[in-house]
Amino acid sequence: MDLNNENILHVKNSDVEYLQFKELLKYADKLQHAYSLKPLQFSDKNDKASINYEKICKTLDIDSNQIIKSAQKHTDIVKDITEYTTEKFEFVDGFITNRKNIPLVTKYADCTPIILYDKMKNVIGNVHSGWRGTLQRISAKAVKMMIEKYNCNPADIIVCIGPCIKQCHFQVEEDFIAKFKQEFGNVEKYYKTGEIVEGKQKYYFDTTNLIIDYLTEIGINRENIFDSNICSVCNVANMSSYRAEKEKADRNMNIVMLK
Question: Which domains does the chain have, with CATH numbers?
Fold first, then answer.
């Protein structure tokens, strides 16, 4: 399936396929990025993951031996990477850096991938925002860290939201809605009432627009936010989806690096 759209370029290169944001390609002399697609998969349980890293990194002209990644425990913790390290960060779900040639990697099967790029200060971020991370505003915390560590101006930061489970498939129950009401107050505009299943009211929640709204509240310009508009469940033929594949789901990889 062709996933090209207004914001996304679908690149097909032999057995390596990936997505890139057209907005970030304007700065291709300064950074490299990609969101991987099937058949390449990257879960820790996949014995071909290291080979797959080599394949996609070779295509992107990235040194796969320099990759920074974490275990991703659905936290709100963001790490500033100041030098290459072999440490596998156990409780980290986002990275920022201003260092060149250090690829930042996060992995996905429905959660929201977010790339941040300050085009003036040349600082990047790569954030894994599952619903728990979204509830804890991890992407906003990454932006605030960019401001604190590198004196970034939020008006200069580009935000790219990759493929994730969209409202059409993100079915939740009242306890989920209650958590978001407690944190954000009135969240009615972010969900639609669905069917009643086995006596339980179902809802369909829109995490993407919630993220967009709280990023604009801290100074990100709306015109600098680019959504892939791709649902991982709708496009399970191209990408991993826990909602669609359950325990069989592997992981896609989101990578960004300064040149």
Answer: 8-167+206-258 (3.60.140.10), 171-205 (no CATH)
For 100, how many CA atoms within 13 A lie in the half-sphere containing its CB? Answer: 6
**Alpha-helical regions (H) of 109-155:** 131-135, 138-150
User: How far is CA 130 from each of CA 34, 83, 134, 176, 189, rounded to the nearest angstrom?
Assistant: 19, 26, 6, 13, 19
3-state helix, strand, coil in the chain (%, to 5): 30, 30, 40
**Block residue for tokens 């009242």:** 174
In the numeric block, which tokens belong to residue 239?
């990408």
What span, in angstroms and rounded, lies between the C-alpha atoms of 226 and 39?
A: 25
Q: How far is CA 187 from CA 74, 128, 180, 243, in A?
A: 21, 22, 7, 23
Residues 259, 237: Cα–Cα separation, whole Å: 32
pLDDT in tens, 146-191: 999 999 999 999 999 999 999 999 999 999 999 999 999 999 999 9
Structure-token pair, residue 109: 């099967």
**The model's pTM:** 0.97
Please state the φ and ψ torsions of residue 51, each to the nearest 5 degrees: -65, -40
Whole-Å CA distances, 253 to 40, 114, 152, 230: 9, 12, 26, 15
